[in-house]
Amino acid sequence: MGSSLTVGVFVFEDAEELDVAGPWEVLGFWAAHVSADPVRLVTVGREEGWVRCAKGLRLGVDHSLDTAPALDVLVHPGGDGTRALKNNSEHLDRLKRLHDQGVLLASVCTGSLVLAAAGLLKGRPATTHRDFAEKLAKIDGTIDLRAAERFVDAGDIVTSAGVSAGIDMAFHLVERFGGAEAADEVRRGMQYDRPVS
Fold first, then answer.
1. pLDDT tier, 3 (very low <50, low <70, confident <90, very high otherwise)
2. Is the pLDDT reported for residue 196 higher than 70?
3. Domain ranges of the chain
4. Secondary structure in 3-state letters for the chain
């Protein structure tokens, strides 16, 4: 990697807990125990404060998207709350601005529907939760839908399938930024075996 990295995880009302906590654990373990370079994780949201996730877990929001430090990566989880977010023009505009600024956008589960609603998946390969693949295709018919894949790296946007697939995507991000040895070290430390498809 050779420099510092700032990762924001977007949290919102009715986000799916594991969509948030899975990538956070992988990236946080890498930051705390493996990476030789500084990796900073922050929660970001529509505003600072608290949000209640889909199963009742309350999470604190460190920064609004407007006040967050300069991000290199933004992880956008899925969950029931994406139904409102994909119709929120202010949120979609923020995602477009972040993408234009060179921030790597990474979605988990139905987070990809929000990226599609922002027009960011046009003509790109992408995935989502298998039960929402048709909805993703309906938002943008130009998407090269890869519903059978755990995650899809399209360069400046990475999408993952449902819920637990966000963990695999986060390992991919560790490997992308820190190398395969770092990702393997995090796997050993977390005692995480790759799922069998």
1. confident
2. no
3. 5-188
4. CCCCEEEEEECCCCCCHHHHHHHHHHHHHHHHHHCCCCEEEEEEECCCEEEECCCCCEEEECEECCCCCCCCEEEECCCCCHHHHCCCHHHHHHHHHHHHCCCEEEECCCHHHHHHHCCCCCCCEECCCHHHHHHHHHHCCCCEECCCCCEEECCCEEEECCCCHHHHHHHHHHHHHHCHHHHHHHHHHHCCCCCCC
pLDDT at 84: 97
Tokens in use for 95?
A: 């995602």
Domain 5-188 has CATH 3.40.50.880: yes
- Tens digits of residue pLDDT in 8-64: 999 999 999 999 999 999 999 999 999 999 999 999 999 999 999 999 999 999 999
Are the beta carbons of 4 and 159 closer than 8 angstroms?
A: no
